[in-house]
Amino acid sequence: MSSKSSVYHIKFQVVDLEPENCHIVVKAKIDGHPLNIVLDTGASHSCFDLSFIQNLKPDINMEDNDGLNVGVGASDFESKLSTIHNLKLGRFLLPDYDVVLLDMSNINKAYEAMKKPLVHGIIGSDFFVRYRAVIDYDQKTLFITKPAGERVN
């Protein structure tokens, strides 16, 4: 295995929600199924929509998340811990990625009301730190680095 790090370039789009209010969204796939994922540097951990993942992977292993769940606009909410297999962002494949699963229906109701595509997940700071991610707004590109020796793609 090579000891060199690899840098991946993933194009994103800026989705305007309201004047001066937007999300950065990347296209992704799980086992070939397309997803829309919000890049959120303020999220402490990557999250995916519980019902979407359960429909996509009915036999997915989940465990209760006994930790404190805190989100903007919610003081406490239920979540599950799981591992998503074969998450692909561009050419960057994560064979096993630990995530939090939670109800994202409120986000998607808002997106639907604004006639925006549904959101299937949120990539959080855990990902940005681990993969030394850089968001280049001019190029609309997310740069991520696979650490040397780590099994991805």
Textual characterization of the structure:
It is a single chain. The chain has 153 residues and is mainly beta. It has one domain: Beta Barrel (Cathepsin D, subunit A, domain 1), CATH 2.40.70.10. Helices cover 14% and strands 45% of the residues. The protein is built from three helices and eleven strands. The two termini are 12 Å apart. The mean pLDDT is 87.
Count of discrete domains: 1
Strand content: over 45%
**What's the total number of strands?**
11
Q: Give the number of helices.
A: 3
- Global mean pLDDT: 87
Basic shape: globular
Structural class computed from helices and strand pairing: mainly beta
* CATH fold-level name: Cathepsin D, subunit A, domain 1
As a whole number of angstroms, the C-alpha radius of gyration is: 15 Å
Contiguous uncertain segments of 5+ residues: none
- CATH homology group: Acid Proteases
Distance between the termini: 12 Å
Instruction: Tell me which CATH architecture applies here.
Output: Beta Barrel
Strand numbers in spatial order across the main sheet:
3-4-9-5-8-7
Helix share, percent: 10-25%
Oligomer: single chain
The SSE order reads EEEEEHEEEHEHEE
Major sheet: 6 strands, mixed, barrel
Indicate the CATH class. Answer: Mainly Beta
